[in-house]
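Morning, I've got a small favour to ask if you have a moment. You're getting the sequence in one-letter code plus the fold written as tokens. Thanks so much in advance, here it is:

===
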Amino acid sequence: MKSFALLVINAIGIQKGKIVDENEIARVIHHSIKEAESESGLKINSAYLTIPGKYVTIVQNSVTREAKDKYAGISSKDVTSSIMQAKDIDIPEDKQIIDIVENQFILENGKAVSDPIGNLSGSFTLKAQVILADKDYMRQIASIFKKADLDIDGLVPVTLAQRSITLDSNELNDNVMLLDIGAGNTDIGVFEGSNFVYTNTIPLGGDTITNDISLVLNISEEEAEKLKKQYGLALKSFIDNDNEILLTTCKDDNGKKIIRSSELIEIIEARVEEIFALVNKDITTQGIKSRINNVIITGQGITNINKSDVAGKITLNIPVKIATGRLISVVRPEYRTAYSLVRYIASRQFVKTVSSNIDSDSQENFFQTVFERIKEFFYS
């Protein structure tokens, strides 16, 4: 039985994706773990967590290996050895390996398979991505988790985890860019089929839009967030009725002021346009824009803003759509990253261990109770 503890860190100690207060983040993690332990009856000793794309470097590597006994078929030991061999790359001093992603196995007859074990082939080639992380960021994370009295099982780039639940069956085989526009950041993930090509982070998200509305209209962030959700529209040209909006927390006019909805949407449009413009600049600079066929957008920061896909298409000049993956509609938005991390970790078939260190009692239907709680947590 595999068990996982997963953390998607969103704390006051993080600003624009940067760690600014280790003690505050450690406090939030410790509090969250204690709440989870109380609710589940588990003792959590370690956890997996996501890592923003800005701290990740992807190195493509290809390894060809002879099968130890071609008449017995490729063994699990052969595969494990090839994965270990894939780690043999020149690693910059400021980076360290956090994962090896097996993209494809090619048998000596040229056939590509996802699992070569048992195939009668004298040799095979592993195509893999070696995932590197910035050492300075890793040191900060290690320090934070030590303060929270928690071990780290592993780190997974946000968009790599998101891919399996965000893309539909056709998109999984296409050259796509996945944009996860969250509260504070926009994570970029570029995939060529199952090949993880590139990832990065833009330090703008849904909270940035809320903050813009609050500053420009001089209203509270609570009212700005409410207005964003109520009137969210990415393009002023799509306004049907330019209604009047009564602002109730405006500091300029004794708490009340009337504006047109077009004024609000103009603020939203400017920031949405900037987010896509920065993404466009990044993928153009990296020389990968021409290889992208479609753009898929997801995340709490953008999905409640209507016509954001149209705004993206105008700026990027690439087809853009809101994610329609099979599980998108059934998993609550605030839990999608955690849920996608569960699925990603559980799918790692060639990893020796993917379980977190969790203590539990041995009641007969304990695990059934836990699974029911997880199902209720993610889907209700």
